[in-house]
Amino acid sequence: MTTASTGNRILGLACRSCGKLYPLQANNFCTEDFGPLEVSYDYEVIAKQLRKEDLQKRPWNMWRYRELLPLDGEPTVGLHVGGTPLVHARRLGAALGVKQLYVKNDAVNFPTLSFKDRVVAVALSKAKELGFTTVGCASTGNLANSVAANAASAGLETFILVPHDLEKAKLLGTSVYGSNLVKVKGTYDQVNRLCTQIAFKYGWGLVNINLRPFYAEGSKSMGYEIAEQLDWKLPKHVVCPMAGGSLIGKISKAFKELTSLGWVNNTPTKFYGAQASGCAPITTAVKQGKDSHKPVKTPNTIAKSLAIGDPADGYFAAKLITNSGGWAEDATDEEIIEGMQLLSQTEGIFAETAGGVTVAVARKLIEQKRLPVDEPIVICITGNGLKTQDVLEQMLESVPLIGPTLNEFDQVVTGPRETVRKPSTATV
C-alpha cells in the first residue's frame, strides 16, 4: 500500500451549526454552540492527489478511498474492512415489483458482519494516531462486536458499555475478544450519557463519543463503493436504516464528494429513512414535517440495533431526507420479521432485524408510490441475521423429524416430483 499524502487535504473539524474550525483532536462538539463536529476537507487538494484511475491498482476494500478519510498516515486497524457486494436483487425486485433493485450487503463485512466495521476501522486507526491505548464505546450491539474485535487485533484495551437487555449473541460476540464488557440497567441513551462522563473522567478514546467525527467518516466508504459498483453512477433512490442517523448522511456526503471530484455526474439521489415503529423519532419528525425529532424515552422494538431514542444526528438526517425529496417510514415487529424472511427467501441474504426494517419500509414506500418501481433503488443492509436469531424462533415452522427410511421421507414431501434423468447409454 502506498503512502497517502496528507498534505493539507484536511482542513480540520468544522462545527455543523456555526462552521467554526477546530484542530484534528478527540473532540465531538463545538464549545461555542455545542453543535456536532465533522471532518472538513479541501477537495481541490484531494483532486490533485487522487485520480479515479488510481483506484484500479488498489485492493477492493474501504481503504482504496483513503485520501477521502481522516487519517494522517496509513491505516493500522481494519485493513480488510469493506469491499462488500452490491447484489442485483432480481428475485426480491420481482417480489416488490421493482425493475432495478440492488442490495448493498454489509451483512458480510469483515470481521464482525456489520457496517460498523467501517466506522471502527477509521476510529481506531485515528485513536492510535492520537496516542490512545484504551478505547471503547456505547453500543446497541454491532458496534460492541466491532470495537472488541478490531481493538483486539490492534492490541488496544477496551471498555464497552451496552444496555442490559441486548441480544445474547451480541454479548457473546463481544466478550469472546477479551473486552471489558459492562451491561448497564438503562436505555442506550442512558448508556451513551454515561460514556460521555467516562470519556471526560478517564481520558479514553470512545469511538462514538470523543472520536465520533472520525468514526462517522468511515460510513462514507459504503457510499463510494455503491457508486463504483454502479459503474460510477449515483442511484436515484437509497433506502437506509437509521439508529443515530449518521449513516444516511454520510452516504449523501460520499456522493457529494464524488461529484465535487468530477468522478460521477451531478444527478440527484433521494434518500429514504427506515426505523422500527417502537423507536421512530426521525421518521416521525419527517412524516410530521418537523425540523427536529422528539426523543423516544423508552424504545420498544425487536430491532435493538436501531433502538436509539435520542439520535445524535436525528436533526440532520430528517433535514437530508426532506430536502432530497425522499421520505421516511417505520415498520412494526411483525413487519420486520416478514422483511427478514422476504430477503432471505428471495436473495439468500440473512439480515439482522435492522435489515428486516429496511426491506419492510422499502415495501411500504413502494406500496405508497413514494418509491418509483421503474428507477434504480439501493437498499442498505447493515448487519447479519446470525446475531438476532432469537426473534425468529417462534415464527418459523418446526422442522420435521423422521427415521432414516424413504417411506418416512415420502410422508413429509408435499411438492411435485421431477422426472429422474436417466444415465446416458452412449459409449465413449
How would you describe this structure to a colleague?
This protein has 428 residues and is α/β, with parallel strands linked by helices. Helices cover 35% and strands 14% of the residues. It contains 14 helices and 13 strands. It has helices at 43-49, 90-96, 116-129, 142-154, 168-175, 188-202, 212-217, 220-229, 246-260, 281-288, 314-324, 333-347, 353-367, 406-412; strands at residues 10-15, 21-22, 37-41, 86-88, 101-105, 134-138, 157-163, 180-184, 205-206, 237-241, 270-276, 328-331, 377-381. It has a 6-stranded mixed beta sheet, with helices on both faces. A 4-stranded parallel beta sheet has the order 8-7-6-9, with helices on both faces. A hairpin with a 5-residue loop joins strand 1 and strand 2. Helix 3 (116-129) packs across helix 4 (142-154) and helix 9 crosses helix 11 (314-324). The relative contact order is 0.12. The model is unreliable at 1-5 (pLDDT under 50).
Comma- or semicolon-separated keywords:
six-stranded mixed β-sheet, alpha/beta, 428 residues, single chain, four-stranded parallel β-sheet, globular
Helix/strand layout:
Blueprint: E1 10-15, E2 21-22, E3 37-41, H1 43-49, E4 86-88, H2 90-96, E5 101-105, H3 116-129, E6 134-138, H4 142-154, E7 157-163, H5 168-175, E8 180-184, H6 188-202, E9 205-206, H7 212-217, H8 220-229, E10 237-241, H9 246-260, E11 270-276, H10 281-288, H11 314-324, E12 328-331, H12 333-347, H13 353-367, E13 377-381, H14 406-412
Parallel strand pairs: 5-13, 6-7, 6-9, 7-8, 10-11, 10-13, 11-12
Antiparallel strand pairs: 1-2, 1-3, 4-5
